[in-house]
Structures are given as C-alpha cells and as structure tokens.
Amino acid sequence: MEPLRKLLAPPDIPELQAKGDVEGLLKALKRKKDAKTREAAAKASGEVGNPRAVMPLVAALEDPVLGVRVAAAASLGKIRDRQAVEPLLSALAGGGGLVRSTAAAALGEIGDPRAAGPLIAACQDAEAAVRQCATDALGKIGSAEAVGPLIAALADGDELVRRNAVEALGRIRDPRTIQPLAAALKDPGRQVRRSAARVLGDIGGAEAVVPLVGALTDDGVRVRCAAATALGKIRDPQAVEPLAAALRDPDRDVCMSAAESLAAIGSRRAVDLLIEALQYKELSAPDSVIESLAQVGGPQVVARLIAALQDEDLGVRGGAARALGEIGDREAVRPLIATLEDGTLWVRVAVLEALGEIGDARAEEHLARFQDDKDHRVRVAARDALRKLGRTAMAGAATARK
C-alpha cells in the first residue's frame, strides 16, 4: 500500500521548483483531477523560466479552472517567449476579467510590438484592472502609436489607470506629451500628480518648468518632492527662485530636493540663495543645503563661502565653514583660522571641524590652542581635527617616500 500511496500523492511542487525539474512540473500540470496542483505547477514553471514550459503553459490557458488559466498567463509573461504572444492575445480578447488583465500584463513583459494594437483596444475595457495592465504594458512595449490612446487614458475614471498612463508616457518620452502631462499635475489623485512631476523631469523641456513650479506648492509632500527634483533635472534658470522658496518647506525631504536641484542648476544666483538659506530659522534640512554647496564646489563658490564667514548671521557663518570643510579647498585655510576668533560656540566648532577635514598643517598650532578649551564640544572638535592632521601628515610623508 505504501508504494501505491506515494504514487498517488500529489507532487511536491516547491521541491520540483527548487530542483528546476521542468519535466516534473509539466507532468504535474497535466494532473486532470487536481486543479490545485496544476495551478501550483503553472506558477512554479514561470519561476523556473525554462522555455520548454511555454507550449504546455499555452495549453493551460484553456484549462477549465480560472486559477490555472491565470497562473499560466502570468508565467508566460515571466518566461518572455514570443511563441506565447498570439495565445496571450487570444486570452486578452476572450478571457474573463482576471485572465484578460493577466494576459495584458504578460504581453507587456514580453514586449512584442504585435501586442500594441490589441492593448490599445484593451484601454477601453470595461474592467479597470484590464485597463490598468494594458496602459502599463503599452509603456513597456514603447510603441509610438500608443501615445494618443495613453493621453486619452489620462482622463480615465480610475486613478491607477491614469497613473499607469503617465508612467507609460514617461517611458515612451514623446515631446507631444509634455502639455497633457503638465495638465496631469492638477489631477485629483496624488499618485498621478507625483508620477506626472517625475516624468516631466525625465522628459525635460522649458514647457514643463512653469507647471512644475506650480507643483512646488501642492498639498502632497511626495508631489512637491517630485516637482523639486524634476526642476533640478531640467536645470532651467526660471526655477531658481521658486526652488529657493521651497527651501523653507516644513517637510525635510522637500527642502533636501530643492537644495539638490539648486546645486544641479549651479548658477551664481542658485549658490547665493543656498548660502542665504543658511540663516533661515525654519530651515528643515540645513545639512542638505551645506552638502549642496559642497557639491557645486569650484573657486567661485569657495570665494563666496569665504565671504560668508563674515556674515552677521551665525547660521550662515557656521554653514559656510562646514561647506568649506566638505569642499576641502586650501584657499579657505587662512580665512577659517581667522574665524576661530568667532565667539559663537557653534561657529567655532564648525570651523575646527572644517580645518580638520581640509588637513592643512598651517592650522595645527591654531587647533592646538583649543584642545584644552573649557567647553567639551570645542575640545573634542579640536582634538579630532589634530588627529586628522596627523593622519594627513603621515599620508603625505608616505607618498613622498614613494
């Protein structure tokens, strides 16, 4: 009885998958009286990804059990064999809603241009899930003929369809889409607005700047972040002042995105506004502003940061010192040494740290004066800086010996 029981027992699908046993999985796919096993075998065949499973999975698209048909369609998408295109197109045209949506998604994974026309038609399907998968698939195929239907899908009643249409247009990157995507920045769905902002940054173009500037005040934080980042990709000077205003955004991520985009633009005005922002009491991401200034770098930025060491605002002085430390230009050493006389604790600590980062031996005696300072933070900063100078000196000596 025991051998017979083993013979009749359902196969161990996870084990067959782990072994990559395609023949075993295909055998399990044919178990007529065991729909659960057939469905599991269909799913596992897609995970294994062997092309030998394509035609058996195509046959499984006609299985009487819905779960098996859906699993077969999904697995054909994972294997990505073009032999499956025509059978999947048939499933897209004549299956139930779940089969149609899965077939649409699978066709997108395969990416065959033959599917573009039927997928465009599926953008009008009565089922939202089918339209969602069809719009996404069209973006993956990247057919220019899909641009018009995808623009039309931006007015779909389902938010995810609209979002997928935006993403699809972003993949196709046709300049004709800029105005419709700009209009999508006013969509009632935050997902749609966020995607539209991101895609406009990827496509670029001066036409996108004004709508993206408007999105900097969107009520959705992720939308504002995406708009700020997009403006940095486009690098249009018109965006400098609005991005500087976004540095005051109460959300840290928005402030960070605005600072990074101002650095990407890198104009004189952008740098000046980044320096000016260091005095904002409501600045939520001062570190990002400092890092952005360091990212721009260059002699002109260094000169303006050196001048900012004399600013009346301690936030500007301290931030300028930290940025100079990150840039590491030795032109800043003497001005930083002079700033050690600044009576403000935070500024002095920032200067000590900056001198340590630059690692110039001229600072050593000045740093030594503060290693026994009465304030713990000053002492720690001075001693850390001196240690860094020591390592720099040893590295320099080793290089000289070579």
What does this structure look like?
The chain is mainly α. Among the domains are: 9-115, Leucine-rich Repeat Variant, CATH 1.25.10; 143-215, Leucine-rich Repeat Variant (Alpha Horseshoe), CATH 1.25.10. The chain has 26 helices and no strands. It has helices at 2-8, 13-19, 22-28, 35-48, 54-60, 66-79, 85-94, 97-110, 116-122, 128-141, 147-153, 159-172, 178-184, 190-203, 209-215, 221-234, 240-246, 252-265, 268-277, 286-296, 298-308, 314-327, 333-339, 345-358, 364-368, 376-401.
List keywords for this structure.
single chain; 402 residues; mainly alpha; Leucine-rich Repeat Variant; 26 helices; 0% strand; disordered C terminus
Helix and strand element order: HHHHHHHHHHHHHHHHHHHHHHHHHH
> Which parts are unreliable, with pLDDT below 50 for 5 consecutive residues or more?
393-402
Strand portion: under 5%
Extended strand count: 0
Main sheet summary: none
Global morphology? elongated
- Overall pLDDT, averaged? 93
CATH class of the domain at 9-115: Mainly Alpha
What is the element layout, followed by pairings?
Layout (H helix, E strand, L loop, with lengths): L1 H7 L4 H7 L2 H7 L6 H14 L5 H7 L5 H14 L5 H10 L2 H14 L5 H7 L5 H14 L5 H7 L5 H14 L5 H7 L5 H14 L5 H7 L5 H14 L5 H7 L5 H14 L2 H10 L8 H11 L1 H11 L5 H14 L5 H7 L5 H14 L5 H5 L7 H26 L1
